[in-house]
Structure formats: C-alpha cells, structure tokens
Amino acid sequence: MCGIVGITADPLITGNIIPQLIDSLKRLEYRGYDSAGFAFIECGADKLLVLKDKGKIDSVVKRHRVGSKCGTTGIAHTRWATHGPPSQRNAHPHADCRGEIAVAHNGIIKNFAELRELLTAKGHRFTSDTDTEVIAHLFEEYISKGMSGFDAFKKVISLIEGTYAIVLIHLGEPTRIYFARHVSPLIIGVGEGFNAVSSDIPSLLPLTRRIIVVRDGEYGYIEPYRIHIEYEGAKAEWRSRIRLVTWSIESAEKGGYPHFMFKEIMEQPRALYETYNGLLSAAAEVDKAASIISSADHIFVTGAGTSYHAGLVFAYYMSTITRLPVIPFIASEYKAYEGLGGRRAVLIAISQSGETIDTLQALRAFKARGTRIVSISNVIDSTIPRESHQAIYTRAGPEIGVAATKTFLTQILALTLLSISTAFTLGTIDSREKEDMINELEKAGKYAAKGIETSIRRIETLTDVLKNKTNMYILGRGLGVPLAYEAALKVKEVSYIHAEAYPAGESKHGPIALIEEDYPVIFIGASPSKEYIEKLQGNVMEMKSRGAFTILIGHDAYNGIKGLDYFVSVGNPSELLAPYAITPPLQLLAYKLAVSLGRDPDKPRNLAKTVTVE
Ligand code: F6R
C-alpha cells in the first residue's frame, strides 16, 4: 500500500544520500509498484529536484538518471494507486506551486476534495488527480502566511482527515524531514550523522538496526542530528523506545534465489525452528495469552487473507485439542459482529505485519466493548501487538514477497502452542500430554524440509500439467480445509489461475457442476485417520467419475486410494505436524505455476503487502 522513505544526512559524514534512497525504496517495492518518485535537496545547490514516473523503481531510476544525481535530504515513494490512475502526474512526491515543497504519502486523505476546492479558490494550481497534493499546497499556504515550518506542518495535520503516513521536505529547511502518522505505518531509523524514516524496517536495514516505531497520531521531524516527536502538542520521549532489530541484512535480500517468494518458502524450516525456540524461551507470553483465553466465555479469531486462514487452523486445533469452540471471522467483516464480544470475551487478532487496517479496526471495535485482545504478529512494536493485551511474536524474519509464506506456518506454530497451553490451563490435557505435544512440535521445521524434499520433483511435473488450465478446485476435509483455502489463495494471487477451495464434502452441493473432462481437482490429505481417508476416497471417486483430473497432495496413508491421476507424498506427519509438511509443496506449486507463466511472484499485479486502506 505505497512505500515511503526519507533520509537526511550530514554530507560530511555520509556524502550523497541518493544511492541509499534508491536502495531503501527498492526494498519497499513490495508495497506497490505502479509508479515511483524521488524528491531531494540537491548537493551544493539551492534547489529541490523531483523525479518521478509511472512504472517500477528500476525503470524510473533509469529513465530519469536518478543514480547520477547528488542529494543531502530526500524523500521517495513507490505507489499502489488509490486516487488517480498510475501516471507520471499522479506519481509521488507531489510539489507545491513553486516547487519548493515535496510530499510523499501512504494512505487516503478523505477530505481532499473540499481542501482542494478551497486551495484552488486561493489560486493554487494542482497538477495531479491525487488526494496527496493538497498537503503540499496547504503547507505552502501557511508558510506564505509567515508560519514556521513546524507550525505550518502541524496546521496541515490538523486539517486533513483520513489515514496517512507522510514525509515532507521544504527548500526553506533543507536538512529537515517532517513526518506524521495516522494508521499507515511509519518507523524512524536512528543513525549517526543521519536519520531516516520509512514505511517499514527491512528498507532501512543497510543503514541502521536502531528503530523507533512512530505511534498513531504522532508527528514531528528528523534532521541529521535531531529527532523530534510530538503527540497532541506534547513532546514525546523517544530514546527509551529505540529497538535494536535483530533481522540481518541478508534476511531481507534474495541471497542468490531468483525470487523472494522462493527464498521464503525454502527458509521455512529455519523460520519454524526460530519461532519454536523463541516462543519456548518466551513461554510467559504464551502462558499469559492462554490464561486470558481460558477465562473467556467466547473466543473470536480474526485476520485477513493468509492470516485468517491461520486463524481457521487455530479454530481446528482449539476444537480438537482444547475442546473449545472458536468463532472465526474475516477482519473486514467485523461490523457484522458489532453486538458481540465484551468483558468475558477474547479476540485473537492475527497479522504478520501488525498493521493491516481491517484487522486493526476489528481489534479496536472489540476492544472498545471491553474484549481482551491477544495478537500474533511478526513485527515487533507494530500497531496490532501494541494495542493488544498480550502479544505473541513469530520469528519468521522479514517477509518481502507479497504472498505470505513463512509467516503462515510460523503463525500456525504459535497458535498451536497457544491451543496446547490453553488446553493445559483448562485441564483438558495433563502435563505429560502437554510436554509430548510440545516436543512433537519441535519437528515442525524438519517436516517442512521433508515436505519440500519429497515433493519437489512431483510438483515440477504437476506444474507442467496445470499451467495451461484456467480453473482448479482444491478440496480438503478437517484440517485440510484451511490448508486448501490457503493453497487456493496462493495459486490465484501469484499465477492468476483461478483456484477455488471447498470442504470436500461440500463440493457435491454445487461446485461439482463445473466438472468436465480434465478439470483439475487437487485433494489435500491432511489427516491420516481411517475415517478421513475413506471419506476423501468417496469425494475423489465422485470427481473422477465425472472426468476430473484428480491429484492428491498429502500424507503417505492416502497413497493407493482409487481414482487418483496423480499423487504427491509429503511423508507421514501426525495431524499436529501436517500443516508444515503439506503447505510448502502447495506454495511451491503456486510459485512454479507463476514462474512458468512468466508472472513475477514477488509483485503480483494489483496487490501490495500490508493493506492499510479499508
Ligand atoms: C496473501 C497475503 C495476504 C495477507 C493479508 C494480511 O498471500 O499475503 O492475504 O495475508 O493481507 O496481512 P497481515 O498478515 O500482514 O495482516
């Protein structure tokens, strides 16, 4: 949902900041890639330069020879279009009438039309269709009235409504970058002889590991040797909020892999290992969350996209291990649950980024009714964990590919530990059973590796069979259902082949009407139990007898069931370990389909990671 970055540096220490600005922006490209732009104070010149265009960052940099320029203070933006189609004029940063102010923005200014009308009446000339441009003109308006830069900026912030992360530079104050945050994420990178702001942590990793998460409603400015943050007119103490990020630079780079998505699928064994060990050593986090859940009489779980699917897996384990019912809902549908929640309820909010607006709104609505909030996130100090009563962090490392992969499995691992701990707190399982299950989960990473190893060849052949199809079903039972939903989402979003998931038993109630000769149907064999195998066998036959091309990806126990055209074994995981063995082959299938069809799996069309608009 747009990425913004700003760097201001002492030229004697860091020299030209343009290479860093380009590099940091490129690390944000997963947030949107409709257009890109740069605005900076030129080295040694009393001039603000704006270079921007339609297209991905590399092509904009090349077309405008951005790399050959020299700057000391600059901002940059990569856009996921909301107001105005992707074009040069709509690309950020946007300037004022005199070209002395430049602003880049992530979010939506709801009242931009009236502000624009007002400013136009005062003689301001607009050159884009965006909501953002009003910010530059408003700032210009107050500066021309004699206000100081900071007062003008504060005035602007008080007038705009909507969601935003903003960075603004002004020729009159050439070493300063103003920033403000309302909902859309923003962090400050604390440097020596420089400071930076960005939409996320990975983009600043080559510059600094010391970060401050800007909180909702905060605004201020950075200079090479100064950071100033305010909230509602009062200065905010920030030194105690500096966090040392442990993510390595390599973890945010492709490291020889052709795509981030592939790298992130392949590093799941390590991500699971680190999450497992991290959570065992922070067992108090999980136990505290479990005690909140145990004392609740209603348990809700929410998230968007992949995180919602992790929530469905949680609901499955809560039912089978903990024996408690969970009410899952898609975060953007939170209004439908308006009368629910309250002091005796708990909401588990799942979000890898910790910033997804739908999940945040659901959290806030439930919290306002007194509901206790437990969250699962991969990004330390992000808004969702910060607004929760108890946060549990996964340790997946930064996820750059737009499609969530490693964060899904690490979320499931954290949620399964939570189910086990809740079951123990409630006495549904004893300490021995708890220990056995926790020991079993230690093998999650091993099973992910095994799932990849045993299936990779078969997945490659399957890709050749499926790449020319336009539709497919993915069907499962029990635990296989949320895994099927997730697999269908992955196939759709990166390969653009239409994939639809259903509980296998439900397929007879309508979806089967589409089956004709060679229509692909992928079955997921998650549970090795006799009952599940027999029932899935029936579903395979129903599809086969209507001409479907039937595939099964799953546990060895499903090998040999009748009516299958293609079987992909993932080994023999228990039900507790099945997600880790089954999901990577399905992610690989989506990835390989995308690559074989010439798509860019890291930047699927129309999508952006971290959705911060409702
Ligand atoms: C799918 C995907 C999205 C996200 C969703 C929630 O591959 O990445 O569906 O899962 O936008 O994002 P988070 O988990 O950051 O709240």
Describe it:
With 614 residues, this protein is of the alpha/beta class. The chain is built from 18 helices and 25 strands. It has an eight-stranded antiparallel β-sheet with strand order 3-2-4-1-10-9-11-15. Strands 5-6-7-8-12-13-14 form a seven-stranded antiparallel β-sheet. α8 runs antiparallel to α15. The model has no long low-confidence stretch (mean pLDDT 94). Bound molecules: fructose -6-phosphate (F6R). Fructose -6-phosphate binds next to α10 and α16. The site of fructose -6-phosphate has 15 residues, from α10 and α16.
What is the count of DSSP helices, taking H or I runs of 4+ residues?
A: 18
Outline, from the CA principal axes? globular
- Please bin the fraction of helical residues: 25-40%
Largest sheet: 8 strands, antiparallel
Q: Strand sequence of the main sheet, in spatial order?
A: 3-2-4-1-10-9-11-15
CATH-defined topology of the largest domain:
Glutamine Phosphoribosylpyrophosphate, subunit 1, domain 1
- CATH architecture grouping of the largest domain: 4-Layer Sandwich
Structural descriptors:
614 residues, alpha/beta, Glutamine Phosphoribosylpyrophosphate, subunit 1, domain 1, Rossmann fold, 3 domains, 18 helices, globular, binds fructose -6-phosphate
Short recap of the structure:
With 614 residues, this protein is an alpha/beta fold. The protein has 18 helices and 25 strands.
Topology readout:
Blueprint: E1 3-9, H1 11-14, H2 18-26, E2 35-42, E3 48-54, H3 57-63, E4 71-79, E5 94-95, E6 101-109, H4 112-121, H5 133-144, H6 149-159, E7 162-170, E8 177-182, E9 187-190, E10 194-198, E11 210-213, E12 218-223, E13 226-231, E14 234-235, E15 243-244, H7 260-266, H8 268-281, H9 283-294, E16 298-303, H10 305-322, E17 327-330, E18 345-351, H11 357-368, E19 372-377, H12 383-386, E20 390-393, H13 406-426, H14 431-441, H15 444-466, E21 471-476, H16 480-495, E22 498-503, E23 520-525, H17 530-544, E24 549-554, E25 566-569, H18 578-596
Parallel strand pairs: 16-17, 16-18, 18-19, 19-20, 21-22, 21-23, 23-24, 24-25
Antiparallel strand pairs: 1-4, 1-10, 2-3, 2-4, 5-6, 6-7, 7-8, 8-12, 9-10, 9-11, 11-15, 12-13, 13-14
This protein binds fructose -6-phosphate.
